[in-house]
Design brief:
Helix 2 (38-47) packs across helix 7 and helix 3 crosses helix 4. Helix content is 29%, strand content 33%. The protein starts with 12 loop residues before the first helix and ends with a helix. By secondary structure, the chain is α+β, with helices and mostly antiparallel strands. The strands form three sheets. The protein has a six-stranded mixed β-sheet with strand order 10-11-12-9-3-13. It has helices spanning 13-18, 38-47, 67-75, 114-128, 150-157, 204-214, 225-232; strands spanning 22-26, 29-34, 49-53, 58-63, 85-90, 93-101, 104-109, 132-135, 140-146, 172-177, 180-186, 194-200, 220-222. It folds into two domains: 13-56 and 139-232, Gyrase A, domain 2 (2-Layer Sandwich), CATH 3.30.1360; 58-135, 2-Layer Sandwich (Alpha-Beta Plaits), CATH 3.30.70.1400. It is globular, with a radius of gyration of 17 Å. Strand 11 (180-186) and strand 12 (194-200) form a beta hairpin.
C-alpha cells in the first residue's frame, strides 16, 4: 500500500481549530468546511461580514517581458492592464489573472485546477520566451471578506480609499492590511461588497486575528468553504 500524501494546511489552521471548525480535504489541502452551518454563515455574511480562509486556491506567478503575450495566447483575449484583474478561461478552467505590474502577473486558480494550469502556463512560457512561471501557492495566505459591512471593516485596517469610485470591481491595489503588506482585489460580487487579500504566509494568522478583532462589533463571522462557495456562486 502506497503511503498517503501529506495534506497541506493554511497559516490560519490553528485559529480555525480554536474555533472548533469542521474540516474536509480538498485537492491536497485541509480546508474549513463550516464553523456552524452553511445556512447560518451565509445569513450572517448577508447582514454583516463573512470572513473566509481561501488559501487553498492555486497561486501562480508569471514574470517577464512576454507576460501579456502569454496570457493573451492562452485566454484568447488581452491581458488585464496593471492594477486590474480579470476572470479568464484557460483550457476550460476559470482563473483570475491579476496584473501586478507590466511584467508580472499572479494567476489564481481553484485548488484542483492548480496542477493542470501550472503545466499549461509553463509550456506556454517556454513557447513565447522571456516569461517565467513559479508556483507561489505556499507563499501567500489568502483571506476573503464579503458582506455589506466590509467597507467599515477595511476602513479600520487599510489606510487607503477603497470606495467603489476609486477601486471598482476587479481592481487590484497594493497596500497595508493591519500593517502587513497585502495585495487587495475587489471581487465582482453582484450584490455584496467583497475583497480578497493576499499576504505573506507568515503573517496570515496575525492578519486573520486582526480582522476578527476589528469586526467584533460589526457582526463579523468566520465562514467555511461551503458557505463561501455558495456566496461566490452569485458572482
Amino acid at each position: 500500500m502506497s503511503p498517503r500524501a501529506p495534506v497541506r494546511t493554511s497559516a490560519m489552521y490553528r485559529a480555525a481549530l480554536a474555533l472548533r471548525a469542521r474540516f474536509r480535504d480538498e485537492a491536497g489541502f485541509r480546508v474549513v468546511d463550516a464553523y456552524t452551518t452553511a445556512d447560518d454563515e451565509i445569513a450572517r455574511a448577508r447582514v454583516a461580514v463573512g470572513l473566509a480562509d481561501t488559501s487553498a486556491c492555486g497561486k501562480i506567478g508569471v514574470r517577464g517581458e512576454r507576460v501579456a503575450a502569454l496570457v493573451a495566447q492562452l485566454a484568447g483575449e488581452h491581458a488585464p492592464e496593471p492594477g486590474r484583474a480579470r476572470r479568464q478561461r484557460v483550457d476550460g478552467t476559470t482563473v483570475i489573472a491579476c496584473a501586478l505590474v507590466a511584467d508580472e502577473m499572479l494567476v489564481l486558480t481553484a485548488p484542483a485546477a492548480l496542477p493542470t494550469t501550472l503545466e499549461i502556463l509553463t509550456r506556454a512560457a517556454d513557447s513565447v520566451g522571456c516569461a517565467h512561471v513559479t508556483d507561489l501557492t505556499s507563499a501567500f495566505a489568502v483571506i476573503d471578506v464579503i458582506g455589506p459591512r466590509v467597507p467599515e471593516l477595511l476602513e479600520r485596517l487599510v489606510p487607503l480609499d477603497l470606495s467603489p469610485a476609486v477601486v471598482p470591481p476587479l481592481a487590484l491595489v497594493a497596500g497595508e492590511l493591519a500593517h502587513v503588506h497585502a495585495w487587495l482585489i475587489c471581487l465582482d460580487h453582484s450584490t455584496l461588497p467583497a475583497f480578497r487579500a493576499l499576504v505573506p504566509r507568515e503573517y496570515g494568522e496575525f492578519v486573520w486575528r486582526a480582522l476578527i478583532d476589528a469586526g467584533v462589533d460589526l457582526g463579523l463571522a468566520p465562514i467555511g468553504a461551503d458557505a463561501h462557495a455558495r456566496l461566490l456562486a452569485e458572482i
